[in-house]
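P.,

For your records, the input lines for the assembly:
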Amino acid sequence: MNQAWRLALRDLRAGGRGLWLLALCLFLGTAALAGIGSLSASITSALDAQSHISLGGDLEMRVSQRLATVEESAAFAQVGRVSETVRMRAMAQPATGGAPALVTLKAVDAAWPLTGQFALQSGGRQPRGLQAAIAPALADRLGIRVGDAIRVGSARLTVTGLVANEPDRLGEGFSLGPLVLTDMAGLDATGLVQPGSLYESRYRLLLPPTANAQALGDRLVRRFPSAGWTMRTPEGATDTLRRTITQLGQFLLLVGLAALAIAGVGVGSGVSAYLARKTRTIATLKVLGARSGTIAAMFLIQLGLVAGGGIGAGLLLGAALPAIVTAAVGNALPVPPRLDLYPLPLLVAAGLSLLVALLFALPALARARSVPAATLLRDALAPALRPSAAVLAGMAALVLALVALAVLTATDRTIALGFVGATGALILGLWLIGLALRLTLARLPKPRRPLFRLALANLHRPGAATDRLIVALGLGFSLFVALAVIDTSLSSEIKGAAPAKAPRFFAIDLQPEDAARFRNAVTAAAPGARIETTPSLRGAIVALKGVRVADMKNLPDGAWILKGDRNVTWSAAVPPRNIVVAGRWWPPGYRGPPLVSLEDKAAQTLGLKVGDTITVSVLGVEVPARIAALRKVDWGAMGLNFAVIFSPGYIEEAPHGLLASVYAAPDRDGAIARAVADALPSVSMIRTGDIIGQIGSLLGQIALAIRAAATVTVAAGIVVLIGAVTASGQSRRYDIAILKLLGGSRRQVLTGQAIEYALLSALLVGVALTVGGVGGWYVVTQVLALPWAPDMRVVAATLAASIAMTLGVGMLGSLPVLSARPAETLRGD
Amino acid sequence: MALLGPSGSGKSSLMALLAGLERPTGGSIHVAGLDFAALDEDRLAIARRGRIGIVLQAFHLLPTMTALENVAVPLELAGEPNAFARAEAELNAVGLAHRLRHYPAQLSGGEQQRVAIARAIAPRPALLFADEPTGNLDTATGAEIMDLLFARHADAGATLFVITHDPRLAERCARVIELADGRILSDRRRA
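Structure tokens returned:
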């Protein structure tokens, strides 16, 4: 081994020229994987670190549309220190008049916050009574400063400060408007808490250190079984965000794996080209008495050193990525990453990269090992050796190890396995296409025109790099198409205006007795506006077919409808945008025992069919109802839609509010909002555009992350394309010299090459559109759950640019040889 | 000994077989007590160590190694502990003491061939093959190289096989075997 080490280092000292492709490909692949892994670990670790602060305590008890009863409050106080908060949507408006804005109104008691620090920007004071602290975004929007007053409901609240840190924001979940924070007296003054109005009361408990939060919470929920309590422990506080980040991280890791797969192809062609240039060195060493094993060890050491360098640099960059991202776009992240070294993602990235490097380098190493000493005497083309059984077995073992590592370390193993399988199948498929192309071209009649003949011959002659080029270009082009498809679909979703048939506003907290005033205010501001109103109350499904949801061990996947409470309604007739697909709707005037209609997908998820019974808890009263009908709902139209609709009658007795949707001309938005704020200050108006904007900005962040990961993958793809084309260019230096010797002009030589690359590209456009299109479609519709809306012009432009780059690199690579005199090249050969 | 003949007469093929660079498709070859036809590529490489030195027309130095390292490689491969000292002595003997640290690209054709001769002779082989050793050199340098080759093989006590199409060069050898179209035309020994 010492011998091999000495020879390897000595040979490498000359610069190891030609191994740059190997190092660069592994650097990019490793950096992508290590970076994505480290970033997602640093964010989830930050979430875990502050889960107590996010929850606002050790245990949270939550209920809708009411406060805790005296008995419930006493039970909470028995187990620990309690803080009470109430959260709802409301409208805020400068007290001096002006456009109202939708806000999140949060009222806190004196004990809040039990964990973390509430902070105001300098000069702010904690609000008391008829005072409020507001988010800076709201101050900007309403054009008010500290000391000014705002109107919320029927209260006039003086702004005492701008909020710098709301400790439990992450645990509060999705909010549509900026924060207005006041105390319980301030909330009372607004008059917004009325029977049927939509608000949520949270009781955060600080427990003794030895207490088991989960057990205590379960006990409290069981003690008030019909009261609609939902409990959360710190682990659950950031569940949704954590799941989103893990899922996004998993998807980005797949993009990283794609980068690594492409890097692997680059490694293969880089190592092949390097070892092909070393043929004479290998033969000379053999003439001098070196054994094949020594030769293989020597090059394995060289490749190992260069690969180690590339992987090491990639790991460094990957480990530093959380810090880099924090410095660059820290504010855009949902939570600042916890900066630390995360060994697991680094180890996984290093392991995957090393396995990929070995797998793709092995065939070339085996070829190098078997270069005969006689190559020095006869300049014959090295025969295209079939890999031996030992090499094939080695490759199979490496593939197994690679798949095992990639799949076992993934959060979603099915998707990871599918992805790895698809990538492997794609590489194999491309290689077979290359083989078929060579065999077909060799059997076709020769074209009469010499340049075409030359171009075709170059694609199928012995020693041609066609199959390697097809794999590299095919993977690269397919990847570019897939990314273009995903990116343009995301962009169109982000830009996507509300559907034309969507309402302009949703109104919440509308009291039934105010319906007429609401209608008048809207139609005065926007004559001809259409208004749909529907009763709404909060209800939680507590039992399915007689089985308590709380007692169910495993909730079915996608059973969002069982999590907490949601809006339910009743209706005499089938609502617009709904179609009954099973069972029968209750007859007009039905007043019998409660019946219910469920959305068909939700029913399917829960395993419910017509005739089954569900029990819904409404304000602590349990209402059992038989399922009479299942409906298909057009959610895309963004109207008022409900998963659970009751028959009229019994349920109408419960205190409830109204939800309204307003359809009007877009230019009346401002007038409608002002008119409703003046007439009914307690009614919150949610602009559809704002919801879409909010979703859009969330998607924008996701798109940014995907684009950043994709950039690395595209960079790897470009490096591989350049590497593959220049590697194949080196083997044609000799041909070019001979052609020139025989009187070929530069233009003729270049045209011949252009025809060759154009033929390859034309073949691969079809492959790329199919493979990239299907891959992109899967990601857009199945992983991101977005509508399929790629911009085919961008896809076409991406492909055209890829082809132009391939042609350009190929042509540019030939220029130095073209400018050299043939004798120089031939003598040097 | 000289193998003399025109291009295509089979002299290089014969040398490749004798030096174990190629394996025969039939028959047997016995060199230094070993049946080369029965050895695989690796065994042939080991068999060459210390037994066979080869000088080729195109020099074939390792481009990434200095003159000294080029000469030391076969010694190192054979496990010689003083490879570098012996390589240096050998380069001194061919008159390149001042060019030890130069790379092949920094040497003239004649100097490169001297390094190749030093490299072939350093392991003290029993057989030294020289395939058209002056083919890539001008007349004067070629003559110098041949003088050196004859002097060094005598010092080293090796049997020298010169493969050439040049009758004047062949005449310097004790035995001349003339080939044409793969057959021996004559086998002359000089007195």
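Two observations worth noting. The radius of gyration of chain B is 16 Å. The first helix of chain B runs from residue 11 to 18.

Regards
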